[in-house]
Specification:
The protein is an alpha/beta fold. It contains 18 helices and 14 strands. Bound molecules: 3-methyl-2-oxobutanoic acid and zinc ion.
Length: 520
């Protein structure tokens, strides 16, 4: 049997639909490009019928991504399948992924359909999808809680209908590895045409077993694994891509399997996702957490110094962590900064370097030593910075246990400097109210998080905000040693994005009107 495992990344679909993980269209494309560098085999780009935004994002990813298969999800109904196909037909390698639940529980309470009806729907959907797209994947939602005889009947029928990838998810994260592996073994033993399809696993992490279940699946003949970066996804998340890829690589002698993942791109991919969504991974997260390769106990440090293999089963370099104790400071020039970014694996355009260098100089003025983590935070916050319609030039906050927090903010708008003050429930609230007074733009803060990038009292704080302006959500990020200035900058970035997108829409509208012959 082929020992190559295909990695199907669903960060942009199952991952993105979970709370706190949403991305806008440009962010989705950025992540898809990184997934391409990571060399995943399939990118599930979204669920096009879910919304216009989802459709547009899948279409854009399908147009731009060349070396990975781009999949779109659809229920077993014509409307969904047509919309999915419309979104991905421009892809180099398109795939329609259609699904229906097969467990009696779902049939009775959710679908209110008989087993026979569901079987018919599944066969019809696969045949219809196949009439549009060469590659069709079919999923039996809640497969791990489905009657095995019925499951085998559905698998056989959908393969006959044209599906070449059959996915059997543990939708609710209920299975344990033994059981999940046995399900695949039984399907392989009982379904006569099973050799015409690749079996796929898709595990959720409700019992913390998603990766273990995925490994049990590949040990039982599964050759496609569905997973997400950082394990993001519904509820407790999906199986984590980086953990699966590194388990397969590190335990090659035991599993005898391989993936095509460029593991040195793992760390960068994980960081990008965290920075786009504001969803950070915990310090002790396997593979990509800040402590994943840190040896604290004296006995371990001693061992690692004598020989890394005493306590290190894989190297940080193998997942793309290139950190050293090399320090840059305010006397380091643009060239040194560029050089360090290259060593860390980032190729910067002149414009990106310019933006990063500007922020580097601001921070180096307040912080004597900048470490690799700081440089990464600088890059993340400066690389997709919005056009600065409003720019923070000054911030002064007065606060205390018995004082009402007051913020005075000065913003540059074109050639004007505008100053105003406001009070608030806390210093950040006061700053945001002052910004509102100056700009006249009302936003509703829906998410706010702050994380210390490195250690020490002068560590950089990375602020992430998500703000609702007129019903649309915009993200903002900032890195600063002053968390209040960082909070104000992150908010302003979201506001600047909202203003830029409003301007773009107005310009488009004018263009459409003038094309239609209406004077504007
Ligand atoms: O968890 C699940 O069952 C899914 C399917 C739609 C593949 O995400
Ligand atoms: Zn799922």
């Amino acid at each position: 049997m082929e020992n190559r495992i295909f990695i199907f990344d669903t960060t942009l679909r199952d991952g993105e639909q979970s709370p706190g993980c949403s991305m806008n269209i440009e962010e989705k494309l950025r992540l898809a490009r990184q997934l391409q560098l990571l060399s995943v085999d399939v990118i599930e780009a979204g669920f096009p019928i879910a919304s216009v935004g989802d459709f547009e994002a899948v279409k854009l990813v399908a147009e731009k991504i060349k070396s990975c298969t781009v999949a779109a999800l659809a229920r077993t109904v014509k409307l969904d399948i047509d919309r999915a196909w419309e979104a991905i037909q421009g892809a180099e390698k398109p795939r329609i992924h259609t699904f229906i639940a097969t467990s009696d529980l779902h049939l009775k309470y959710k679908l209110k359909k008989s087993r026979e009806q569901v079987l018919q729907d599944a066969v019809w959907a696969v045949q219809y999808a196949k009439s549009l797209c060469e590659e069709v994947e079919f999923s039996c939602e809640d497969a791990s809680r489905t009657n095995i005889d019925y499951l085998c009947a559905v698998v056989e029928a959908t393969i006959n209908a044209g599906a070449t990838i059959i996915n059997l998810p543990d939708t609710v994260g209920y299975a344990i590895p033994d059981e999940y592996g046995a399900m695949f073994r039984m399907v392989r033993e009982r379904v006569p045409n099973i050799d015409k399809a690749i079996l796929s696993s898709h595990c959720h992490n409700d019992l913390g077993l998603a990766v273990a279940n995925s490994i049990a699946a590949v040990q039982n003949g599964v050759r496609q694994v569905e997973c997400t970066l950082n394990g993001i996804g519904e509820r407790a998340g999906n199986a984590s891509l980086e953990e699966i890829a590194m388990a397969i690589k590190t335990r090659h002698e035991k599993l005898g399997l391989r993936t095509n993942i460029d593991t040195e791109e793992i760390y960068k991919s994980s960081k990008l996702l965290s920075s786009l969504t504001g969803m950070m991974v915990q310090r002790n997260k396997a593979i990509v957490g800040a402590n994943a390769f840190a040896h604290e106990a004296g006995i371990h440090q001693d061992g690692v110094l004598k020989s890394p293999i005493t306590y290190e089963i894989m190297t940080p370099q193998s997942v793309g962590i290139k950190h050293t104790m090399l320090v840059l400071g305010k006397h380091s020039g643009r060239h040194a900064l560029k050089q360090r970014y290259t060593e860390l694996g980032y190729t910067l355009s002149d414009e990106e370097l310019q933006r990063a260098y500007k922020l580097f100089c601001e921070i180096a003025d307040q912080k004597k030593e900048l470490f690799d983590e700081d440089l990464e935070a600088i890059l993340e916050t400066s690389s997709d910075a919005a056009e600065e319609v409003y720019q923070l030039t000054n911030i002064q906050i007065v606060t205390g246990t018995n004082l009402r927090p007051t913020a005075t903010i000065e913003l540059k708008y074109g050639d004007q400097m505008i100053v105003d003050s406001a009070t608030g429930d806390g210093p950040v609230d006061a700053a945001y109210k002052a910004i509102e007074r100056i700009t006249g733009v009302i936003g509703k803060l829906t998410e706010y998080s702050i994380k210390s990038v490195s250690l020490g009292h002068d560590a950089i704080g990375e602020v992430f905000v998500r703000v609702d302006f007129d019903g649309l959500l915009y993200n903002g990020r900032a890195a600063s040693t002053d968390i209040l200035a960082g909070s104000a900058r992150a908010y302003l970035e979201a506001l600047n994005r909202a203003m830029a997108s409003k301007k773009r829409k107005e310009e488009q509208q004018k263009l459409t009107l003038s094309k239609d012959g209406v004077t504007v």
